[in-house]
Amino acid sequence: MTAPSSAIVLLGPTAVGKTDLAIELASRYPVELISVDSALVYRHMDIGTGKPSPELLQKFPHHLVDILDPMESYSAGQFVRDVTQLIADIYSRDRVPLLVGGTMLYFRALLRGIAAMPEADPQFRADLDRRALQVGWPTLHAELVQRDPVVAQRVGVNDAQRIQRALEVMALTGRLMSDVQAEAKPPLPAVNFVLLGINMEREQLYARIERRFMQMMQQGFLREVQQLYERGDLRADMPSMRAVGYRQLWNHLAGQWSLDEAVAQGVLATRHLARRQLIWMRAEPDLHWLAGGVDSLAEQANSLIAKIFG
Hints:
The protein contains 14 helices and six strands. By secondary structure, it is of the alpha/beta class.
């Protein structure tokens, strides 16, 4: 790109209504939708991810939806590479990218860049897993708070994957993960990202989360996870099966929890996810906050993005 161009970024906690607003904006403006969701990339994971219906996707296509089998992995680095090419293609069609989703790690990688991180160390991770079994992940999170409070603030007390990675990076490099991350450079410096964030009162959001989870159960979420479980080639520790809701129902199918307990844990994990998403959003200085119903959100968004379209 020889001159700065714009892209719209629409983010928010799970269940807040991002898709509804994205569709409304797509019906008004010449945009192309790009999903920013680490679970929507997977085929056969439809109900538990809140994936838009096939009819809606046909009318309003989303890039980066249904691009992988659950056996495969997808990283923030791959996301940045894919989006970089997609944005160039969208500009070539004289349209504007509208990125929508809730995977904050992907947003951060796109907006801030990805630092050079060491490869995973299986032995270190195995040792840390053993420690976690003895003392619990909240204790290891407390250790992270003492050693790297900047990163710890963005990581949940039971977020085993990210606690493990932060401690691993420090062990392998001798440096704080926050210092390593600070060296990252934005991959698309010529793009003007207009950031829109949706939020609502906590109790209202939590009620929506619980209501949506129960609706997914009624729509056949358990059967969806059972079909994945019965494939025989998937494991609980794969990125796809670590998705919120899926891992809790997987534990039920594995005999660890009753169905009621799995549902309760799924709702709780979704609330924790929403809280982590909001923590990240509040740390973003250029974010324009939106609140209200779809019509109100759309009008607020219009006032912020109309200039992009002349």
